[in-house]
Write a structure and sequence with these properties.
Shape: globular
Structural class: alpha+beta
Bound molecules: FE2/S2 (inorganic) cluster
Radius of gyration: 22 Å
Number of strands: 24
Distance between the termini: 31 Å
Amino acid sequence: MGTLHEHNPSLWASDAGGETYPSLEGDRRCDVVVVGAGIAGLTLARLLVDAGTDVVVIDAGPVCAGATGYTTAKVTALHRLVYRELVDRHGEERARAYAEANQAAVEQVAAIAAGDGIDCDLARAPALTYTQRNEHVADIEAEAAAAQRLGLPVEVTTDSTLPYPIEAAVRLAGQLHFHPRRYCLGLAGAIAARGGAVHEQTRARDVTTGSSGVAVSIGDATITADRVVLASHLPFLDRGGFFARAHPQRSYALAARLRGPAPAEMVISAEEPTRSVRPAPGDRVIVGGEGHKTGHDPDTPRRYAALEAWTQAVFDVETIDYGWSTQDYETVDGMPYVGRLTRRDDRVLVATGFRKWGMTNGTAAAHLLADTLLGRDNPWADAFDATRLAPRASIAELVRANADVARRFVGDRVATLRARPAAALRAGEGGVVRHDGTNIAAFRDDARTLHAVSATCTHLGCRVTFNPAERSWDCPCHGSRFDVEGRVLEGPAVRDLTPES
Ligand code: FES
């Protein structure tokens, strides 16, 4: 199974079977360590083993248990209304790099799946960004014009197979959707078959650089390599300051079986609330939306309820089989960060900030990093440069995101001075409560047993908040998440919350 203690496994993570890989025991030496067995890390390793590189991939959990296992799995270069925004912020040259990299990623996924014979329900479909409101038609037309100038063969249309009318849509043909876990298991198998190594349940805790190379600490053991790539969501290393340049967003998805065929296209609404729909095998649709900042909504069950209500209202639903949520990072200037962690050192590389479009951005990042590691020029490297400063047009977003973090750091401490006693928690409820004179993060399970851990995030010390839908402790500052036993679900934290008795 692909889940890493998550309360609501995704359609993909629930798909049992597939190869498992042992945790790493003992020291190891290799050319490149890749931290993170999601689509970015595995695609990178897959490209490197073809070039004869000795690669070790490690992951804190199973293959494809992180963001890649909780996506809607659209493989498309049409990212809602991204292109006009990127042109405004970065100019046409960098925006074109984003378009080209993501369109190339669509074809790279298709080529890898075909070349390695990966059975992952891969199918072509057009992608649409649509509006149902007349006042947004101009936004659709502007997006289409920007995308066309950047080289994407889009068109404006009013046609779709959706069961509700649309005013207009920008349409990009020939995109893909697939089963991401099967694709990633296929990648892992191909890596292992070509001499690479994949190790699950192997958490990187630190990276140091020295004269003998890079040392990745995984507890008692160390992997020594020439280079390391951090492809595990937000980098767990604080140098590079990515936690201040990207902010976490949660979003929600469900899989519903219909009493008839699903729409043929992959669609997403231009307006709020975001509604994302794609077909899936077995007359299913996957519906996504309801995004919000991590740790900033105490009523997460209402997010699932809103998606379910919309799906029931719009489609002829037989059953809703799965509901899950996920997290990704938005960068302050809208471009992912791919390349060196810091300007001074080319031995530690990073890929993050895929802004919920990780299937193509992750694949593009792998392509770019493989070129970098193999000493080849890459035409997109400057645009994605991870050490760049935010352009002037994005400074306001940088200030806003960090002011919000500071507010949570101070405000949540003040709020917990008024915390309830632990005895007040009902079954199934969690919260920061008073217990023996201190504040703790406590959850009372359905059998009324209290699970108590420190309320202080082990990353940089913000107060965690309870996420009732996932039964997890989520940090509102940079998005670390922990299960009710305090175990890390996702970083940047690498240490568990301390148990409280
Ligand atoms: Fe940074 Fe919690 S994730 S303080």
